[in-house]
Design goal:
CATH topology: Alpha/beta knot
Number of domains: 1
CATH superfamily: SPOUT methyltransferase, trefoil knot domain
Binding site for S-adenosyl-L-methionine: 128, 149, 182
Radius of gyration: 15 Å
Family: Belongs to the methyltransferase superfamily. TrmY family.
InterPro entries: Alpha/beta_knot_MTases, TrmY, tRNA_m1G_MTases_N
EC number: 2.1.1.257
Subunit structure: Homodimer.
Number of strands: 7
Order of helices and strands: EHEEHEHEEHEH
Number of helices: 5
């Protein structure tokens, strides 16, 4: 039984400065709309306070102007989960500007560092990949970190990092799915 779930999203185009328009997340933000939907999918819960306290998501932003930047949303420490893309974007902007809300932090951690940190913290690593072992037949550790990419996926360097850390490839199906849908499916299948 999983006690703690974490998601690591590699956002290859996500802006690394709070200089994007919240009204144009898909354009000026470098697909920050995708990032925001993933944050919501990871944290929003039907619990009375609206947040999954056993879940966190680390978003590794790799877009301009100054990559990398990792923003982590830890449900255990947050006052509330964002309920929409604009609210999630406002939290991202605040973290980037040094005004992170409670439970949110921003660091200059790159993808490999984020993966290694999760491993050091005792998380078993699972790479969501179309060619992996069938998710429904997989077993997961009590602390599971699920790694996924944005619309570009994980690049070869990122895959080598995951392989070197012993990440197990698991598949939700033979086709690529939206990253936010993958998170929702994982949360539904691994409560």
């Amino acid at each position: 039984m999983i006690l703690l779930r974490s998601f690591i999203l590699k956002a290859s185009e996500g802006r690394t400065a709070p200089d994007f328009s919240i009204k144009s997340l898909a354009g000026s933000g470098g697909r920050m709309d995708l990032v925001c939907r993933c944050i919501i999918a990871a944290l929003l819960s039907p619990e009375p306070d609206g947040i999954d306290r056993g879940c966190r998501i680390t978003v590794v932003l790799e877009g301009p102007p100054d990559p990398p930047l990792s923003v982590e949303f830890d449900g255990a420490g947050m006052d509330r989960a964002p309920e929409g893309e604009v609210e999630a974007a406002e939290m991202l902007v605040a973290a980037m500007a040094g005004r992170a809300p409670r439970g949110v932090s921003a660091t200059r951690e790159d993808f490999g560092q984020a993966v290694r940190r999760h491993s050091r913290e005792g998380f078993s690593l699972y790479y969501l990949h179309e060619d992996g072992e069938d998710f429904s037949e997989s077993e997961f550790g009590e602390k599971a970190a699920f790694v996924l990419g944005d619309q570009k996926g994980i690049d070869p360097k990122g895959e080598r990092c995951l392989d070197s850390m012993g990440a197990k490839r698991v598949s939700l199906g033979p086709h690529p799915y939206l990253a936010s849908h993958c998170i929702t499916i994982v949360r539904g299948m691994v409560p």
